[in-house]
Amino acid sequence: MTRPATILAFDYGRKRIGVAVGQTVTATATPLTSVPARQSLPHWELISELVRTWEPDVLVVGLPLNMDGTEQASTQDVRWFKRELEQRFALPVFTADERLSTREARERLIAWGARGMDDDQLAAQVILETWFSDRKGLSCAG
Fold first, then answer.
1. Is 44 helix (H, G, I), strand (E, B) or coil?
2. d(CA 54, CA 97)
3. Of 11, 18, 20, 35, which sits most exposed with the smallest number of CB within 10 A?
4. Could you tell me the sign of the dihedral formed by the alpha carbons of 32, 130, 117, 80, in that order?
5. Phi, psi for 17 (deg, rounded to 5)
6. How far apart are CA 21 and CA 33, in angstroms?
7. Which among 6, 4, 16, 21 has a CA at the least distance from the CA of 127?
8. Phi then psi for 69, rounded to 5 degrees?
9. Which residues does 88 contact at the CB level (< 8 Å), separation at least 6?
10. Helix/strand number for the chain, H first, E second
11. Could you please report the per-residue DSSP string of 65-129?
């Protein structure tokens, strides 16, 4: 049996990075916050603080793809962010398909009557839920 693990998920953007946290026991995710980025560079100190606080076992980054599965212009930015996370925190970093995650986040906000609120952290939650769903029956390192 695989031990319980904490996961931090990121929805990378050039202006803001949504962050969600989850755990493998129930495979659930909760939106946390949005971290600002300046000139496409993340506020690494805030990300480091989140990693210290939550002590994740794994990090997940949403990978932007076109609907046909091909890469977008922003896909390379996300691959760079993933490599930076790996180097800075020495943790396993996985990607999850983020197609339609922002749309799903906005639909949730509308359903909750919270239209216009920051959707980045909710998009990170959707990304993490997708990652959990794609790995049912596998270990968190899978």
1. helix
2. 23
3. 35
4. positive
5. -125, 115
6. 10
7. 21
8. 90, -5
9. 44, 48
10. 4, 6
11. B-TTSPBPTTHHHHHHHHHHHHHHH---EEEEE-TTHHHHHHHHHHHTT-TTS--HHHHHHHHHH
What's the chain's Rg over C-alpha atoms? 14
pTM of the full structure: 0.83
Q: Look up tokens 């490599």; give the residue.
A: 83
- What stretches in the chain show pLDDT beneath 50? 1, 137-142
pLDDT of 5 reads 93
One-letter amino acid of 66: N
Two tokens, residue 71: 């890469």
d(CA 118, CA 35): 11
CATH of the domain spanning 6-134: 3.30.420.140
Per 3-state DSSP, the chain is made up of helix, strand and coil in percentages (nearest 5) of 35, 30, 35
